């Protein structure tokens, strides 16, 4: 009887455990159901456009009539003068944006980190441009850098310095975009650098002070070496963003990057050929060429970030 009682108890326990397991499995599937709309959205708005763009890169298409052309679209893009001009503009603006913003942002972050009180105030002030819409920022900069009414040229003229045409002259238009990019991105760089600066152990600085190291020596031999990972992250994210630049140059110079295509980037070239010229096959081919360029430079940056400095 005792064995039967034990067996019945164990059976009841197994049944109860099975019910709980089934209930948990049902609950899990309930949560998966809530993910279906997001999953469908990713398929519809991300996966499908990527696949369709790849297919179109092998066709001559105006959106309604298509004909297979093989690799002709890629040859057309790679032999196009405007495309390589757009590549040059993209790299020129991107290189100077990164070279100016990362060191300048790091210096500002170091200064803010050394402030005893008011750090949050400076964080907010410097980060405000980053949360500003890039379209709104581009429109503001058209007034700020206006050749006659802009505040920058007013300040230069008051100091007896030359007043460039900025967005009205091909020789200075890229520098106008670079100023806009630095102003818009520097807040992000400062916040990221500040986060890493505050994570550096204070014991390292205390030991350096005991050894007689000056503030400059501590900055050169403790702070900067501990920031290499952050610099690599900022370099990669900055490059990826720079190579995809479109919104601000479109607002300032339109799809052809006026004046004289001096600020047309790869993204603007793709938009011009696709949505202005209705050459969707060429635009798709240019998109994948840009993707390969971004992939190559991201790989190079990753390799460089793993090198011991």
TrEMBL record:
The keyword Transmembrane applies. The chain crosses the membrane at residues 29-51, 91-112, 124-145, 175-197, 218-240, 280-302. GO terms for cellular component: plasma membrane. Residues 87-301 form the ABC transmembrane type-1 domain. It is found in: Cell membrane. It comes from the Bacteria. InterPro entries: ABC_transporter_permease, MetI-like, MetI-like_sf. Keywords: Cell membrane, Membrane, Transmembrane, Transmembrane helix, Transport. It is a multi-pass membrane protein. Pfam families: BPD_transp_1. The keyword Transmembrane helix applies. One of its GO terms (biological process) is transmembrane transport. Belongs to the binding-protein-dependent transport system permease family. This is Sugar ABC transporter permease.
């Amino acid at each position: 009887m005792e064995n039967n009682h034990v067996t019945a108890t164990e059976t009841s326990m197994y049944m109860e455990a099975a019910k709980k397991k089934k209930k948990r499995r049902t609950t899990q599937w309930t949560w998966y159901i809530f993910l279906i709309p997001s999953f469908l959205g990713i398929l519809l708005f991300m996966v499908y456009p990527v696949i369709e763009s790849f297919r179109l890169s092998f066709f001559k298409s105006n959106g309604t009539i298509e004909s297979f052309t093989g690799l002709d679209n890629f040859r057309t893009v790679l032999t196009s003068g405007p495309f390589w001009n757009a590549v040059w503009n993209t790299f020129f603006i991107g290189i100077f944006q990164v070279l100016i913003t990362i060191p300048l942002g790091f210096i500002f972050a170091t200064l803010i980190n050394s402030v005893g009180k008011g750090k949050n105030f400076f964080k907010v002030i410097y980060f405000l441009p980053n949360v500003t819409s890039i379209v709104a920022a581009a429109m503001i900069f058209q007034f700020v850098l206006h050749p006659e009414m802009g505040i920058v040229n007013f300040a230069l003229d008051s100091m007896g310095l030359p007043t460039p045409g900025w967005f009205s002259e091909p020789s200075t238009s890229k520098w106008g975009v670079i100023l806009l990019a630095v102003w818009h991105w520097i807040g992000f760089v400062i916040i990221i650098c500040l986060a890493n600066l505050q994570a550096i152990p204070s014991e390292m600085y205390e030991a350096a002070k005991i050894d007689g190291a000056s503030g400059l020596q501590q900055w050169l031999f403790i702070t900067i070496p501990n920031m290499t990972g952050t610099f690599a992250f900022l370099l990669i994210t900055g490059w990826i963003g720079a190579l995809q630049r479109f919104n601000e140059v479109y607002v300032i110079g339109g799809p052809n990057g006026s004046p004289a295509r001096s600020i047309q980037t790869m993204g603007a070239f793709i938009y011009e050929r696709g949505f202005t010229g209705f050459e969707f096959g060429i635009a798709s081919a240019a998109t994948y060429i840009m993707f390969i360029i971004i992939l190559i430079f991201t790989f190079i940056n990753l390799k460089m970030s793993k090198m011991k400095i």
